[in-house]
Write a structure and sequence with these properties.
heterotrimer, A alpha/beta (328), B mainly alpha (282), C mainly alpha (334), A: 328 residues, alpha/beta, Rossmann fold, 10 helices, C: 334 residues, mainly alpha, MetI-like fold, 77% helix, globular
Chain lengths: 328, 282, 334
């Protein structure tokens, strides 16, 4: 263990390559991200659609397959006794894959469709348990226990996924993802397709798991209010870049980056009668992003230097970093 | 859509070759307009001559020059299948949209009829027709092929309409007062006609194949030259036993080329229309 | 699900009913095909002299024989009655051999050809297809096979059979040109018979196999490629479920159902194709039987074979439709 850091992400760049006839396009979804995932924390990755946050989630999990390519940078995993690295040079992908599900797991975005429609739930459970050479009975019981604590009747394991509602499927997938008590769980927009009541229940669920197992969650969402209620730290992504990262409280009480300020102001609050404003402009083009700061086209405080160079990170207060020329 | 075709032509070798082959066939078919021989006449040239400069593809046992007979054959076969394709597109569109839009009992009835036509084997019916009519005229053939050719595609159209109907823009159009006919024509059609086009080419391959097969069996009007009837006559005169291979080979080569080119065009178009863009790497 | 079955059964029965009714009405609607007239004409053509009285007698017995007595309605009922007792009437050109006997003689040949080639080609095509779509995706053999299968795909049965016939019977005289067995040979159960039968069956079977394997291969490969991209397969891979399990239970299982449904839908076409192939090779099955009947205006045989094929194809499709819920649970609970 590397003083409390479980995963170290170092200037990672991952692009999607697409080809239509002769034109090759690189979608620079993750364009130089540096951050760490620490022990016993819930860290949220926030951003709008097209900011690259889902891709970052995939990359952290090592799910890098065509058309996604790892261009540069390195991820180091400190989840067991050895340091496992993921980069273009090191061929440790297999070692990273061996960490999967037991030490790190992933809840994909459309949990609706991730369960095999022609296989009963308990069979899918068995597939996972057997493939990891674990004891069937122990983990079956554990799974049933999880289901119950999620408010589900364990009998549903005899059904097929399409017979269950979205919320039920979601909870099953979460139960599957937590079955081996991994140290890190990456959840990609697990609440987005659900109604608010189910969303709230899910958040409570995540908190419960975190409390009981003391694991770390990487929570990817565009909903800032969920961040406020759930995350210990928040990272703000935009246009493939990390704009601001810090403790939740600091971010919400003392946002530094103009974009962060917009995001936080957009959350409606009871009793607040002020007008809400939308951020002008559109999401950035990830294929040919402008030089300089990614947020420039929509930033009301743009300066000349913002067009030319990308700002570097400044530590504004303890554990609160921003990338913006306003503070330099 | 033209841009897509143009791009396909420029970058996709298979498409390009297939289009060139088809265009050459069209050019060859046009030769029929300047043919020195009337295709329905026999014994205008010496029989059973192998390919030579005077008769590039040889002559038949009925005294016809194959080189000048083939354009008519190709042309007629093509026209027949084209007619079938057009008619089946119209029927499939009509039935598919009605079934998809109306739903309920009408849908059930139409789909039951549709299923029946999919299952019904066409060959016995054709053979029966031959008995009734003596020879199946090409008009009748077109009618029967059209009757059997719409069922599959009507289902496709119906499923598209079903999904479109639930989308928001349908409700918006409907509530703002557009008549159902208008909705179908103006809003749905752009989604439907790419499918009709893609399946249209498949349908053409199928009807060409059926025409060839039926005519080869002698069930149609054997005096009209088509690929199928040419093969029929060749077999009747025991062409390969007598060693007159050119009578059989040339029609077969041409029709196989035609099939392959049409097939590759349909395959490459559907690959390109697929929203998943081509991706580098394996 | 019950509704699903009912609808399927109705469709099968409807097809049979309509098909048979059409077949019933045709000779009674077209005077030229009136079997009695045809018979009389034929006898006269053969030079037999018949005085008017004998003609009348003959007509009466013929009318009885061909079920043309009574009003249309009575005939219709009798028609169905005789159908249920398996009587399809006598053949005209091979009078008085009953049509059912002719069919029974030809049937084993057709079934032998049809059953073996369609089952074999489905199995081989499906196995190769799923491999080409999943584990052997970029291997050379998969790509070559794909090109070959695509080349064969658009070519109709008849053309392919002709090409095979030309190549392997004339150009390279390896195989016999036609028939099911050597002329005049007695069919007994010995090695020589079996070899001859196989020899004669090889080319027709090959033709059907090529088309069959090509088609099923492409179908299964495309299905597999689509399924591999599905979310649940990706998830299984992310959860590190073993490759063997994924292949068997996530990919294969989900691809099999549409493949089986494909078999049901193609049954009519496969049947047509077999008959056509038989014709090219003069193989003594239903195809040759019905073709000769057409040339002899033997309506009863044509009618018999038509009824038979309509019933066979409908029932075959129905059976496959009924089996499908056993394989795919999604259909069960629709």
């Amino acid at each position: 263990m590397n003083n409390g850091i479980l995963i170290k992400i170092d200037n990672i760049k991952a692009y999607y390559k697409t080809q239509s006839f002769e034109t090759v396009k690189n979608v620079k979804a993750v364009d130089g991200i540096t951050m760490d995932i620490r022990e016993n924390e819930i860290i949220g990755i926030a951003g709008e659609s097209g900011s690259g946050k889902s891709t970052l989630g995939r990359v952290i999990y090592g799910y890098i397959e065509s058309p996604l390519f790892l261009i540069d940078g390195k991820i180091s995993y400190f989840l067991n006794n050895e340091e496992v690295n993921l980069s273009n040079e090191s061929y440790e992908l297999q070692k990273m894959i061996n960490l999967r599900w037991k030490l790190i797991s992933y809840i994909p975005q459309s949990s609706m469709n991730v369960l095999n429609p022609t296989r009963k739930i308990y069979k899918i459970l068995e597939d996972i348990i057997e493939s990891h050479n674990m004891d069937k009975n122990t983990y079956k019981d554990k799974f049933f226990g999880s289901l119950e604590s999620f408010g589900l009747n364990p009998d549903i394991v005899n059904q097929y996924s399409y017979q269950l509602s979205g919320g039920m499927r979601q909870r099953i997938v979460i139960a599957l993802a937590t079955i081996f008590d991994p140290k890190v769980i990456i959840a990609d927009e697990p609440t987005s397709a659900l109604d608010v009541v189910t969303q709230w229940n899910l958040i409570l669920l995540f908190k419960k798991i975190h409390r009981e197992t003391k694991n770390s969650f990487v929570f990817i969402t565009h909903d800032m209010s969920i961040m406020a209620n759930l995350a210990d730290r928040v990272a703000i992504m935009y246009g493939g870049k990390l704009l601001e990262i810090g403790m939740t409280r600091d971010i919400f009480e003392n946002p530094q980056h103009p974009y962060t300020k917009f995001l936080i102001n957009s959350i409606p609050q009871i009793g607040d009668k002020s007008e809400k404003s939308a951020i002008p402009g559109f999401a950035p083009d990830l294929v040919s992003p402008p030089p300089g700061c990614r947020f420039l086209p929509r930033c009301p405080y743009a300066k000349k230097i913002c067009e030319e160079k990308e700002p570097s990170y400044i530590e504004v207060e303890k554990d609160h970093k921003v990338s913006c020329f306003l503070l330099q | 859509m033209w841009r897509l075709l143009r791009d396909l032509y420029r970058y996709n070798k298979r498409f390009k070759i297939s289009v060139i082959i088809i265009l050459c066939m069209f050019a060859y078919m046009l030769l029929s307009l300047i043919s020195p021989y009337d295709p329905r006449t026999n014994y205008v040239v010496p029989i059973n001559l192998p390919p030579s400069i005077q008769h590039p593809f040889g002559t038949t046992s009925k005294g016809q020059d194959i080189f000048w007979l083939l354009p008519f054959a190709l042309r007629n076969s093509f026209i027949i299948s084209l007619a079938v394709v057009i008619i089946t597109r119209i029927i499939a569109l009509f039935i598919g949209t009605i079934a998809g839009y109306r739903g309920g009992i009408i849908d059930n009835i139409l789909m039951t009829v549709d299923d029946s036509f999919i299952i019904l084997p066409i060959l016995p019916i054709l053979i029966l027709l031959k008995l009734i009519l003596g020879q199946i005229s090409f008009q009748s053939l077109i009618l029967i092929l059209s009757l059997f050719g719409w069922a599959w595609d009507a289902r496709l159209v119906r499923s598209i309409v079903l999904s479109l109907r639930e989308r928001e823009f349908s409700y918006t159009s409907f509530f703002s007062g557009r008549s159902i006919l208008e909705i179908i024509l103006k809003e749905y059609l752009p989604y439907i006609y790419p499918i009709l086009l893609a399946t249209g080419i498949n349908n053409m391959i199928w009807s060409l194949g059926m025409e060839t097969t039926i005519s080869t069996l002698g069930l149609t009007s054997i005096d009209t030259p088509t690929i199928g009837t040419m093969v029929f006559w060749a077999l009747q005169h025991q062409a390969f036993v007598s060693g007159i291979w050119w009578w059989l080979i040339f029609p077969i080569i041409f029709v196989v080329l035609l099939f392959l080119s049409l097939y590759y065009i349909s395959v490459t178009i559907s690959e390109a229309v697929d929203p998943r863009l081509k991706v580098i790497g394996g | 699900m019950i509704r699903f079955f009912i609808r399927r059964v109705i469709v099968a029965l409807l097809v049979i009913f309509i098909g048979i009714t059409i077949v019933f009405f045709i000779p009674r609607a077209i005077p030229k095909l009136n079997p009695v007239e045809v018979m009389i004409r034929r006898l006269q053509m053969m030079g037999t002299y018949l005085d008017p009285k004998s003609i009348e007698l003959m007509k009466t017995s013929l009318i009885k024989l061909y079920g043309l007595e009574g009003s249309i309605f009575e005939q219709y009922i009798k028609f169905w009655q005789s159908l249920f007792s398996g009587d399809l009437g006598p053949s005209f050109s091979s009078f008085p051999t009953p049509v059912i006997v002719l069919i029974k003689t030809a049937l084993p040949w057709t079934i032998g050809l049809l059953a073996t080639t369609s089952i074999l080609s489905w199995i081989i095509g499906t196995i190769l297809g799923v491999l080409a779509g999943y584990s052997a995706r970029n291997k050379l053999w998969a790509r070559i096979f794909e090109i070959l299968a695509n080349a064969v795909r658009p070519i109709p049965y008849y053309v392919l059979s002709l090409i095979l016939l030309l190549l392997l019977s004339y150009v390279l005289p390896i195989f016999p040109t036609g028939g099911g067995f050597r002329m005049g040979m007695k069919i007994t159960f010995n090695i020589e018979t079996i070899i001859t039968i196989l020899e004669h069956a090889f080319l027709p079977a090959l033709s059907l196999l090529i088309v069959g394997i090509g088609g099923w291969f492409l179908n299964m490969r495309n299905l597999t490629t689509l399924i591999v991209k599905e979310d649940y397969v990706t998830f299984a891979q992310l959860a590190k479920i073993s490759n063997k399990t994924i292949f068997k239970n996530y990919v294969l299982k989900n691809a099999l159902l549409p493949q089986i449904t494909g078999l049901a839908l193609q049954l009519g076409l496969i049947f047509n194709g077999t008959i056509i192939t038989e014709l090219v090779f003069g193989y003594p099955g239903l195809g040759t039987l019905v073709y000769e009947a057409v040339n002899n205006s033997d309506y009863n045989v044509v009618m018999g074979v038509s009824i038979f094929s309509i019933v066979a194809v409908s029932l075959g499709t129905l059976i496959i439709d009924i089996i499908s819920p056993l394989i795919d649970p999604r259909v069960r609970y629709r």
